[in-house]
From TrEMBL:
The name this protein goes by in its record: Protein prenyltransferase alpha subunit repeat-containing protein 1
Pfam families noted in UniProt: PPTA
Species this chain originates from: Odynerus spinipes
Transferase recorded as keyword: yes
One Gene Ontology molecular-function label: protein prenyltransferase activity
Domain of life: Eukaryota
Amino acid sequence: MQEDTFPAAEKILSDIENVLKKDTSLKSFEIVPAEDNENKSPVFHQEECLGLASWCVQPLYCYAYRRLLEHRRNRHRREDPSNVARWLLGALLLNPDVATFWNMRRELVRCHKLDASEELAFTRLVLHQKPKCFEAFAYRRWLLPYILDAKGKNYDPIAAESPLCAEADVARTCADRYANNYHAWSHRRYVMTLRESRGYTHPTLEAEWKSSLAWCQRHVSDYSGHAYRQFLLRKCVLETEASSKEDFLEYTNTADYRQRCDAVLAYVSGVLSENPHEKESEDSTTLTRDDTTCRTLDMLHGKSHPGCTSRLESQACFHALSYWIEESMANEDSIRMYNDHEALWCHRRYLAHLLLRLVESYKMYSTYKAGVVDDSCRIRPLELGDNVDGRNESKGNNIQAPLVKAFLDRTREIVELARKRDAYERILVERFQRFLGNIGLEL
C-alpha cells in the first residue's frame, strides 16, 4: 500500500463516523484480527462496542495521515471541515499520540464545527484503545472548562449528570486497563482541583476517598494510585480549614463523625495505657468520643503548653486526623497481607513524613495549616532550636507524642513481620528504616 490513495478509505471513515453519530453511548474501540474480505465492511458495531478489522489499519491510517498533512501544508486551499474532521477521526483512533492532529481538532471546536460534548465521547474511545495517551487526556482537560463555561455560573448538577463524575470514571477505567497509569491519576487530580475551584458538589471528596481506597486495595503495587491517595489525604486533612462552621457543626452529630473519633482514640489507646507520663487526669487512658477537646488533642500531639482553640475547631482537627489514621491502618493491613510490594513501603514513608508535619503544625497553631503541612523542605521538624508558640521544645519531642509513639509501635510490628519474609522484603524494610532515621524517627 505505497500509493497515496486507498479506494475504500473514505467509505470506511464514513462508516466509523456514522456509528459514532448513531450510538453516542459507545464505550470501547478495538482492533479486530481479520483478513481482507472485499465483500464485507471492516467496521464492526455491537453492544456499545466499535471494532475495526486489522487488515485495513495501516492503509487507512496512511491515507488519513497524508490527507491531513497535505491540508496542513496547503492552508490557502479551502477544505470542507467535515472532511478534515473525518480524517482526524480515523488518524486519532489509530494513532492518538500526534499532538498536531489534536490541535487541528481544537481549531474545529473553536470554530463550532465540532461539538465539545461529542468530543468527550470520541476521546473516551481513544482512551479505551490507548489508556495511557497523554495527548487525549490533555485534550479532555482543554474541553472541560470549555463545556462548563457554557453551562453558566449556577450550574451544579447531580452526580449522575456531572461531567466531572464522568471524567473520574474515565480516569478510573484507564487506570484499570493500564498499570501505573500516572496520566490517568493526574487527570483525576485535575478533576478534583477543577471541582474545588468552581465550587461544584460532585464528585465529593468523601466519595473519591472511599472509591480510591477500594481501588488501591485491589492494586497494591500500583504507586500511582497511592500517590492519588496522598493528594486526597492532604485535601481531607486541610478541608476543615475551608469548610463552613455551620456545615461542620451539623456533621458532628452524625454516626460517621462518631466512628472517626472512636478510630482516633483507639489508635493511641495502647500507648496511653502503657505510658503513665501521658496521663493528664485520672481518666486519660479511658478517653471516649466525647473527649474531642483541645486538651485531648494537646496530649495526642505532645503539646506541652495548652492551646487556645474552640471546641468546634478541636472537633475539626479530630476529624482531619482520622483520615491519616484510616490511611495508616489500611497501609498496615496491606503490608501484613501482601509480600514484596515496594509501593506499600514508599507510601508508608509519606505517612510518616506527613505525621511529623501534622504534629509540628498543631504545636505551632493548635490546628493543621497548609503552610506547615506542605513544607517539604523541613525534613527534621522541631530541631535545632525551632521556636514553637514562643517556647523552645526539646529535640526529639515529636517522639514523645502519643500519635508518633503509636505509629512507631505499629510500624515496629509490621517490620518484624516483614523481616521474616524473603530477602527482597528485608531490603525494602532496611530502606524504609533508613528513611525514618533521616526524618528523625527510630524504631
